[in-house]
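anyone else get weird line breaks when pasting these?? whatever heres mine. first is seq + tokens for prot A
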Amino acid sequence: MSAYAALSGAGYKAYTRDKTTLFFTFAFPLLFLVVFGLIFSGQSVEQSGKPYINYIAPGVLSWGIANAAVFGVGFVLMQWRRDDVLRLIRMTPARLSSVLASRYVLAIGIGLVQALLFVAVAVLPWFGLSLSGSWPLAVPVLVLGITAFLAVGVIVGSFARTPEAVAAVANCLMIPMAFLSGSFFPLDAMPGWMQSLAQALPLYYLNDGVSAALTGSGTGADIALGCGVLAAVAVVIGAIALKTFRWSDKS
């Protein structure tokens, strides 16, 4: 516990002192919300008749949180390994579980604050997102989504050796997934084959679960399905992440 507490405290201080990263972590999803919200202001999706904001806001929120989880832990692990911080931690009584748990708690905190800020902006009259009575159910979906994508970030951070490599790999994973999963464009307006492909991607279930909870676009079964798939992805990818974790570039 002492190792976990020390690593968590150090991680929090390092994150809050990096004002640029702190700003863009929260501003990046909001930028997409503003852009898409203004472009599609007052418009509805022809196929369903629902406002675009009902699709765009949950999708952008899900992508922003997943993106922050992947990039956040990916960059930190790469830097710690490159600077021999992980090697020094390994020489102490601290275990791998303490290292990852400290990053996990920080990612959960960042993700939930991101979500709170994002929703607070999305419900403003300029965007017009209307929350359903089931909106609190978005919290477990988001937590499981952060868990799953944090595991992806651990794998990226365990193999990438430079910041450029982390950015390239993470972007290659997250940007195509965002479009294919309906984060930036309603799946209802996409070809059938693309809608089928989306169901093989974890971000689709994060989008779907968050959307069902926030806007009432789905049922409790949709939220439960999203939670179940994200939990399964977290277990599988997490097991791979633990198996492939490297304390240094030589081991």
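and prot B, same format (seq, then tokens)
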Amino acid sequence: MGRVSQAQAQENRQRVVATASRMFREKGTAVSVADLMKAAGLTHGGFYKQFASKEDLVDEAIAHAFDDPAAHSAVALEEHAGEHEAARRTLIEHYLSVSHRDHAGGGCPVSGFAADLGREPDQAARARHVYINGVRNLAARLATGDDDGMAQFCTMVGALVLARATRGNPLSEELLQAARTALTESGTGQSAPQQRTD
């Protein structure tokens, strides 16, 4: 068997990164290199020709996830270019959907990588930097007036993580709906004041 060309080697590397990005969001970064390479359709032995370590791959996989427009609803937002409130509502509706809950591999990298980065705070400095910037950028898409969007984004991520953890129980959909309602009742993401009935 001949040597792999540089172009093929680069294509293989990109395939591994894209596969890792999806699998890590679905199953966490504890996925084995052997399973990852098998899913990418490549041999286990080829991994170390492409990457110095699994940690390097984790860094690249996280960066890849944040560069993927579909992972954070950038495509949906562009449909409402110049209409911030419509774009904000579209992002909320997409993010807090059953489809997003059920397809973590192609979903938001913030929720997908939160647990892994939280468990290993001293590792993956590059990944952490990319992640922090990603959180700030996604929160900024929700900003309205004096609201920087951070609390809205926390509500969305928290609701999605809880909905995934309770999938299969009616509570899962209740959590998604409760967060959607709280974030869309007013333009600032604040719940509308409750009317007193006494």
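btw re prot B: The chain has eleven helices and no strands. The chain has a mean pLDDT of 85.
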